[in-house]
Write a structure and sequence with these properties.
heterodimer, A: 8-stranded mixed sheet, 5-stranded antiparallel sheet, 13 strands, B: Rossmann fold, Rossmann fold, 2 domains, 4-stranded antiparallel sheet
Chain lengths: ~375, ~350
């Protein structure tokens, strides 16, 4: 992509579309997204439930069930190689060696009937080597001390992720570990084959605040030490702010805004991003906005124009009919909203975060409208679900 | 202020651990261990804690889903600790609960109307009036009256939680227990539910017990806050006070662990070291102060002596030896938690 800075992209997603076929029609769940992770960069994809962030991640990893899913267009390139065209063996090799994956729920991501040691040692020995054949499998597993060496590697790595009592943990079953420990095991597992890119889905969300904090700190250290690139998927803007260099905001299968992390929190531009940030309760006790009206539109037969239009306080005619493209107004900073279109100016000036927050708080000042007609009508429009 | 609506005194709930072929009781999980608090009419009290702190057990004990092992609970002056089934039924006309998971707390085979009809029937509303009541209720929780013909799977998470709230307020209770009512929802929806709860409280003079693990949310909902750790209240204070000047090292750590979204908040957070280690199992609680295994200031005293709640200012109490004048010298050479907290709050202003 042209907007990338001087460093090379390690992962590049271009015009990805994912459709799901169902009896009711085709759901256009991912509707043309572009995404880049540069070498050594931490990129966060932030969005709420149902915005398609997990589907994006699954498409990158090739774990989408096809059918019902279908990828009509799109390119996912890892270091120049298109993962969507590559053979199964090649993809497995890349996933095993070059891409590490940390899934959302630490407690259910490990196999409950094998000890932690068995699972980790297997990953260390066979990650990305699904095609080695029975003899080689037997040799590595039982002869030549290969297994012993792998086990030592696992122990070293567990120590690196600050696992207390690493050697003992190897003989434990996943059910004997706490949430925080399982999370550390999974991080270790993802790092075993020294990947260059790590993909993390909602890391630590299931954990308690203080443990979550420890895990984020650990991840931060590992990224620095190993010069990892990270693509993280999260619904928590606070986590994105703490870890990432750049943020993509996703809404209803599209990227609506991207910017360097500092910029997006200091000066969010898209009305959705602003609404999202304004809805987060503040530690300092400033009043928060009253949330965003309505909900995500249906993916089957979605609105023609901007998918946020039905919930947007600044929507006008053009938003209903025409799709806003992501336009870069600075390097690495883009927004998909007609309010920022120079060619055909919108009827409103681009709002600031504070204006949007006020906008969202003013509505309930009119209690009659909330209780009866207007709100009900509004709800049925916004609320297609 | 008149008499509190809910008084909880030294509440204890121990779950026996049974083992061996005769299922002998070999120990106890002390889920709630000596918790006391009051809630005044029309007020919101927040209970904060991580998993295993016993906050949900307290809620279940109040509403009679669990029987207390010790201590007492009184509601509106009446003791409700040990009630018979029929007495519990009466109690639940005045105390209602909204659960965390909006999906599993609705019967998937009932339409919204059928769900909301049950409490109305129980309250003795005649058949002819029920539909108009249901429409009123739905409008009250800002849903379209047409939603009454839908099944739960046709509603979004936020809408389902609104139905749960409608069901809870349909019999006009006095106390509403909210067990993590927004933690399964997105932030943009959470904000709307919080505002709805706030409106309802004003309108019906409801009293809330708001249970959550999200400290940042508390500031927007509760007048007073109690912070729990391993079955005990570690600190309680007016919410403002708790944020401006957290006294207990655990509260400080909790505050500093929250991922925030602005530089203002970053500066506002107490600058504390990260907590080491994990939450000990409630089966086997640490001796002395329960927090000492993770506390950055722990000394010998903390390992051996149990801590009572010490008054720290006009409204606040903290369960920490640092605030015990008797042990003042034990903490002399430590960076002073008290002044650190005070400095932060002044520097922020």
């Amino acid at each position: 992509m042209t907007n990338a800075s001087n460093s090379e992209p390690i992962l590049n997603v271009e015009d990805l579309r994912v459709h799901f076929d169902s009896f009711d029609g085709t759901a256009e769940v991912i509707d043309g997204i572009d995404l880049t992770v540069n070498e050594g960069e931490v990129v966060a994809v932030v969005g709420e439930t149902g915005c398609g962030k997990s589907v994006t991640m699954r498409s990158i990893l090739g774990t989408l069930q096809q059918p019902p899913a279908r990828i009509p267009t799109g390119e996912i390139t890892f270091r120049g190689q298109n993962l969507l065209d590559a053979s199964r063996v090649e993809v497995d090799r890349i996933k095993g060696r070059d891409i590490g994956m940390i899934f959302q729920d630490p407690m259910s991501s490990l196999n409950p009937v094998f000890t932690v040691g068995e699972q980790l040692t297997d990953t260390a020995q066979f990650g990305g080597n699904q095609d080695i054949g029975v003899l080689e499998y037997f040799r590595r597993k039982h002869l030549d001390g290969d297994r012993e060496a792998a086990r030592q590697r696992v122990i070293n790595l567990l120590e690196e992720v600050q696992m207390p009592d690493a050697e003992r943990i190897l003989d434990n079953y996943p059910s004997q570990l706490s949430g925080g420990m399982s999370q550390r095991v999974l991080i270790a597992q993802a790092l075993l084959n020294e990947p260059d890119l790590l993909i993390a889905d909602e890391i630590g969300t299931a954990l308690d605040v203080t443990i979550h904090d420890q895990v984020l700190e650990l991840l931060n250290d590992l990224i620095d030490e190993r010069n990892l690139s990270l693509l993280m998927i999260t619904h928590n803007l606070g986590v994105a702010r703490q870890l990432s260099d750049r943020v993509y905001i996703m809404y209803a299968g599209r990227i609506v805004e991207t910017a360097p992390t500092e910029e997006i929190f200091r000066n969010p531009q898209h009305p959705y991003t602003q609404g999202l940030i304004a809805s987060i309760p503040k530690l300092t006790g400033e009043e928060m906005a009253d949330g965003i009206d309505g909900s995500i539109p249906e993916y089957i037969d979605p609105p023609e124009g901007c998918r946020f239009a039905s919930r947007c306080p600044y929507a006008h005619d053009r938003c209903e009919t025409e799709r806003p493209e992501l336009q870069y107004n600075a390097e690495e900073q883009g927004v998909a909203c007609f309010l920022y279109d120079d060619v055909e100016p919108a009827p409103y000036d681009p709002p600031t975060l504070d204006e949007t927050r006020d906008q969202m708080r003013e509505k309930p000042a009119d209690p009659d409208a909330t209780a009866t007609g207007d709100a009900a009508a509004e709800q049925s429009v916004g609320d297609l679900e | 202020m008149s008499k509190p609506l809910l008084e909880v005194r030294n509440l204890e709930k121990y779950f026996p651990i049974k083992s061996g072929i005769f299922q002998q009781t070999t120990g106890h999980v002390k889920a709630v261990d000596g918790v006391s608090f009051d809630i005044n009419r029309g007020e919101t009290l927040a209970l904060i804690g991580e998993s295993g702190s016993g906050k949900s057990t307290i809620a279940e004990t109040i509403i009679g889903l669990q029987s207390a092992t010790g201590g007492s609970i009184s509601f509106d002056g009446e003791d409700i600790t040990d009630l018979s089934e029929s007495e519990l039924e009466d109690l639940r006309r005045k105390v209602q609960m909204v659960f965390q998971d909006p999906t599993s707390s609705l019967n998937p085979r009932r339409t919204v109307e059928q769900t909301l009809e049950v409490p109305l029937k129980a309250r003795g509303v005649p058949r002819g009036e029920r539909v108009s009541k249901i429409v009123d209720l739905l409008e009250r929780v800002e849903l379209n009256p047409e939603h009454r013909h839908r099944y739960p799977h046709e509603l979004s998470g936020g809408q389902k939680q609104r139905i749960n709230i409608a069901r809870a307020i349909s019999i006009e209770p006095e106390l509403l227990i909210l067990d993590e009512p927004t933690s399964a929802l997105d932030v943009s929806v959470q904000a709307k539910i919080v505002r709805l709860l706030d409106d309802l409280q004003g309108e019906f003079n409801l009293t809330y017990l708001f249970i959550t693990h999200d400290l940042s949310l508390v500031r927007n909902v509760a007048e007073r806050t109690a912070v729990m750790y391993l079955g005990q209240i570690q600190e309680r204070a007016r919410t403002e006070q708790l944020f401006e000047q957290p006294h207990h090292p655990y509260t400080q750590a909790l505050l500093s662990a929250i991922p925030v979204t602005s530089d203002d908040e970053e500066a506002y957070k107490p600058q504390r070291e990260r907590l080491e280690g994990e939450i000990p199992s409630p089966e086997n609680v640490p001796s002395g102060c329960r927090f000492h295994t993770r506390c950055p200031y722990a000394t010998d005293v903390c390992e051996t002596d149990q801590v009572p709640l010490h008054a720290v200012d006009d409204h606040g109490e903290a369960r920490c030896h640092i605030y015990d004048p008797e042990h003042a010298d034990a903490f002399e050479d430590l960076p002073d938690v008290k002044t650190a907290a005070a400095q932060r709050s002044t520097s922020h202003e």
